[in-house]
Input
Amino acid sequence: MAHLKIHDTLVGDGQPSFFIAEIGINHNGDLELAKKLIELADASGCNAVKFQKRTVDVVYTAAELAAPRESPFGDTNGDLKRGLEFGLEEYREIDRYCRELGILWLASCWDEGAVDFIDQFEVCAYKIASASLTDDALLAYTRAKAGKRPILLSTGMSTLAQVDRAVEVLGKDNLILLHTCSTYPSTYEEINLRTMLGLRDRYGVLVGYSGHESGLAPSVGAVAMGACVVERHITLDRAMWGSDQAASLGPSGVVRLLRDIRILESALGDGVKRVAERELPIIKKLRRVGA
Output
């Protein structure tokens, strides 16, 4: 597949990369902070923002939720997970605000109930996190709900056999595979960008990159290698409280990365060898034979 559409945006060969600003849980349970992150993404030229949605009591066992864990929300892991989870009122405002600004949004859904919840907002695409890649039931349920909308599947912490199975369950229509390393933050040696090319060749689908590194170069390199989608976590302050903040881009980082990606895309051209118009006077000046 050479192209598909995310909402009204054509993505694929020869098109600008579709940039998703992953807000995830970096809003720290604060709707106003979430809106500031949406504003940052919009002002930086991102195509979409992404959140994460879980039905806490389904995704986590009672023992996991009861485990001790200090956070601003309380002393247990359950306090943290529930404190970070937005409900209907918050997502209605997120949906309204994104529409007001004209930026798309989507979410990683970690369970079937979360898929149903997000589906009411008619999001532009569905995202399946690396952690959910082996959940056949969730994959099949997401595909049924998505219809003709694209599904983006991150492939971190997964073997090729596991990705084979996930692609079998999802089917290849309107599927984009995102190469991912699920360490936060990833070291450059862990990223292994060439895997993205292997995924494209193996499955014959569009590919992209979901990065968790602290720098910019791998994400720019992924676009040079043909990533049609790039996803990066964003934050207002990388020193802010939260497990994903250090693997995120701050405001200046988002702006610089989008700038560098768009410059690169302009420089890549169409691959047809030709003499540039501004080279013609240089030919007359410097070429002795064959001018």
Notes: The radius of gyration is 21 Å. The domain at 3-286 is CATH 3.20.20.70 (TIM Barrel). The first helix runs from residue 31 to 44. The mean pLDDT is 96.
